[in-house]
Design goal:
34% helix, 12 helices, 6-stranded antiparallel beta sheet, alpha+beta, single chain, 11 strands
């Protein structure tokens, strides 16, 4: 089923961005030692959009008291940034390794290529890979029934035994497609959900073949530039130049907030239809699992109101709340123990959203609470919490 939202849901009109909003964004960025891009979402005090800043101050204090290595935290209401918190002297200009948040961006690119008529959801892995890489044709012949739709919904039936801390598909790969070509089809495609990272490797190859250019270049032209993502960088390509569709993308926290708002606004940004509205509807429709659409988690962080959730290894998150017109973004280095759906970092982010952000959205704002939040955020800017997980070189923020 497709999640339906009432007509009363507010929609922020990006195309009507006011001079006041731009000035506010500039002032906020100046206070954070950061630089705003012209297309960044505008900023507002929480009370200006009916939000109580007190629970957000409590959230910041709680994160500090727990010693959680949260590098950035952003809350957006009605298309305006109302909280922007950084540690380690980071700022708005820094981007982060997003891990599996990359998958959601890949799904957006798939929608663009489908709209252009360059690929369909029924496109078969065996056919596309055999054309792209004739040397692998025999090794992928058993994947004749696996389609792009199966890859995007994590229901391909492909069974790959991987090591998340040292698997060659993640680190220093010479040829990712060759590494996974022999992955067996263990059950009927489409019959069950199984989250495996061979799916986005095949998806990257199929989408790049459809684009007729490197996937990162297509993404830059069709998505990052229209959304004003000047610091976007898709790294960790293999030695043949193929990026993974499941990790390696680096974006700023502001860019992540823009993606969340893009989902809420059904593919529109700054008055333009960037991604087809119908494709956003398909992405946000449950497929092989009740909480997963096309490379997008559904209702996984919040269960009291609809949510669209992007989740990345070690603590990279975006939650879009369409009925509240709100987005929450976090980048972090948090513990990974506990499994896919309920790892420690997921549980921490659930606390962030459910215990603090939702009460703030339900409260009544005041100028005094706004000022207290500003002071609290400033007090954490130079804090240096200890990472709760192993840190790779790619985990270092870049500007």
């Amino acid at each position: 089923m497709h999640l339906q939202f009432p007509a009363s849901v507010s929609r922020f009109a990006h195309g009507r961005r006011s001079l006041t909003g731009l000035v506010a964004a500039t002032l906020l960025c100046g206070s954070l030692g950061a630089t705003a891009n012209a297309s960044d979402l505008p900023s507002a005090a929480p009370s200006e959009v009916g939000v109580d800043a007190a629970p957000l101050s409590e959230l910041s204090s709680w994160l500090d008291a727990q010693g959680y290595d949260v590098r950035s935290l952003m809350v957006v209401k009605d298309g305006q940034v109302i909280m922007e918190r950084y540690t380690q002297d980071l700022g708005r200009q820094h981007n982060y390794e997003l891990y599996s948040v990359t998958k959601t961006v890949t799904a957006l690119l798939a929608g663009l290529l489908i709209e252009e008529g360059k690929i369909t959801l029924d496109a078969r892995v065996a056919d596309v890979i055999a054309t792209l890489r004739p040397d692998l044709a025999e090794r992928v012949a058993d994947k004749e029934e696996v389609t792009l739709a199966h890859l995007l919904s994590m229901s391909s039936g492909l069974a790959y035994d991987f090591d998340p801390e040292g698997d060659p598909i993640y680190y220093g790969a010479e040829d990712r497609l060759a590494l996974i070509a022999d992955t067996p089809v263990a059950w009927e495609p489409g019959s069950a959900f199984d989250y495996t990272d061979v799916n986005p490797v095949f998806a990257a190859a199929m989408l790049e073949a459809a684009a007729g250019e490197p996937l990162a270049e297509y993404a830059e032209r069709r998505l990052f530039e229209p959304l004003g993502m000047e610091n976007a960088s898709w790294q960790r390509a293999d030695d043949k130049g193929l990026v993974s569709a499941g990790w390696g993308l680096r974006l700023r926290s502001m860019d992540l907030a823009t993606l969340g708002q893009l989902l809420i606004d059904q593919g529109r940004f700054d008055g333009e239809q960037i991604v087809p509205e119908g494709w956003i509807a398909q992405m946000t429709t449950p497929r092989a699992a009740r909480d997963f659409g096309y490379y997008l988690w559904l209702g996984h962080i919040v269960d009291t109101t609809p949510s669209f959730d992007m989740m990345g290894f070690k603590g990279q998150f975006v939650t879009a709340l369409p009925e509240r017109d709100a987005v929450v973004v976090m980048t972090a280095m948090l513990p990974i123990d506990g499994g896919l759906r309920h790892s420690k970092n997921v549980r921490i982010f659930r606390n962030v959203v459910n215990d603090y952000v939702l009460p703030a959205l339900d409260g009544e704002g005041s100028a005094e609470a706004d000022a207290a939040l500003e002071d609290e955020v400033a007090a954490r800017a130079s804090s240096t919490p200890t990472p709760g997980v192993f840190v790779d070189p790619t985990d270092e923020p870049q500007s």
